[in-house]
User: Which sequence fits this backbone?
């Protein structure tokens, strides 16, 4: 597996490749040792060669704790470890790296995870540029990060589908071509991508048409997005969550006004289930927050629906984390909200005024 990321000026690797990926490699290896009763005899400090030894030591001391959390989580671990017959091993690659010869037995004893930094290292005192201009472009380390700010909606999928066209397009015409491709792609998404939360009656639908004639089933619906949907066409079987363009305003409106409505709506319709329909990709985090809130509020640890009794139900991060794991495992990792939305969901359920909402 090859993982590619970039980083800011003055660093060779981003922390995600330097710490997070090696940490997960180590935790998965430890989990395999426990489940498969094998021993890899790995000094996991070697997984962190580019950070201070004291920090690597601290990480390794916590590996048993994180391994136990994974073992006691709601993730289907058999699907994770059964296909693996060897341990994972991070290999660090950057522009000046020299890789070993690609002989067949080079990585016979492990699955190599290539942590690849695309950033050419620039010392902080160099002003962020390498040379003057190469191929007509100035190089600024890390400027490729946060592609949402500069890619005009171009996704990796669209890039690979149209890379020949994009590479042949003159620079002055590139933005126009990209916007055309993005618009065409948005029109093609007529059928929603659907995620069913296993053993519940809750689904998230991304994209598709809000028209009653194109409903995937007879479940009530919650529409989330910036568009005005004629919810009256659905009778009493739909509500609309109309969110503003500002992210901070979306957060306030959703958690203060709309989430209580969604919880009440599900209370009246839980026997029929619920489709949470996202009208644009950028609003997916709030659909995940709605589904997470419903799972926390109405489903016990065995995924059985139960009318909430706040005087007996304990709401803490452990419960919220386990319900989030249901969403992640039901979607192969695609339903994972941003940190700000997850933190706000934690606050919503762990603050006493919210506990007595119903």
Assistant:
């Amino acid at each position: 597996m090859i993982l590619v990321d970039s980083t800011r000026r003055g660093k060779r690797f981003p922390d995600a490749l330097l710490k997070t990926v090696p940490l997960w490699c180590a935790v998965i290896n430890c989990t395999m040792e426990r489940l498969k009763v094998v021993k890899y005899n790995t000094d996991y400090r070697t997984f962190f060669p580019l950070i201070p030894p004291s920090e690597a030591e601290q990480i390794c001391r916590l590996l048993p704790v994180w391994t136990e959390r994974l073992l006691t989580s709601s993730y289907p671990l058999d699907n994770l470890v059964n296909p693996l017959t060897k341990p994972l091993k991070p290999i660090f690659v950057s522009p000046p790296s020299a890789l070993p010869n690609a002989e067949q037995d080079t990585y016979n004893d492990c699955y190599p995870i290539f942590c690849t930094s695309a950033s050419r290292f620039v010392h902080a005192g160099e002003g962020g540029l390498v040379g003057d201009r190469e191929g007509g472009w100035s190089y600024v380390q890390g400027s490729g990060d946060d592609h949402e700010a500069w890619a005009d909606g171009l996704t990796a999928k669209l890039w690979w589908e149209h890379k020949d066209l994009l590479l042949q397009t003159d620079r002055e015409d590139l933005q126009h071509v990209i916007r055309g491709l993005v618009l065409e792609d948005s029109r093609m998404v007529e059928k929603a991508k659907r995620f069913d939360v296993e053993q519940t009656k809750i689904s998230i639908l991304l994209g598709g048409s809000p028209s009653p004639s194109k409903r995937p089933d007879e479940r009530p619906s919650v529409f989330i997005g910036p568009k005005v949907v004629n919810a009256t066409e659905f009778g009493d079987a739909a509500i609309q969550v109309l969110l503003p363009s500002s992210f901070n305003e979306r957060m306030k409106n959703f958690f203060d006004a709309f989430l209580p409505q969604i919880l009440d709506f599900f209370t009246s319709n839980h026997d029929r289930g619920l489709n949470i329909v996202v009208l644009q990709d950028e609003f997916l985090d709030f659909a995940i927050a709605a589904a997470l809130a419903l799972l926390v509020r109405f489903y016990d640890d065995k995924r059985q629906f139960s009318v909430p009794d706040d005087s007996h139900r304990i709401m803490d991060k452990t419960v919220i984390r386990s319900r989030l794991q249901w969403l992640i495992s039901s979607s192969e990792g695609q339903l994972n909200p941003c940190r700000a939305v997850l933190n706000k969901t934690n606050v919503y359920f762990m603050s006493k005024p919210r506990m007595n909402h119903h």
Observations:
- The two ends are 48 Å apart (CA to CA).
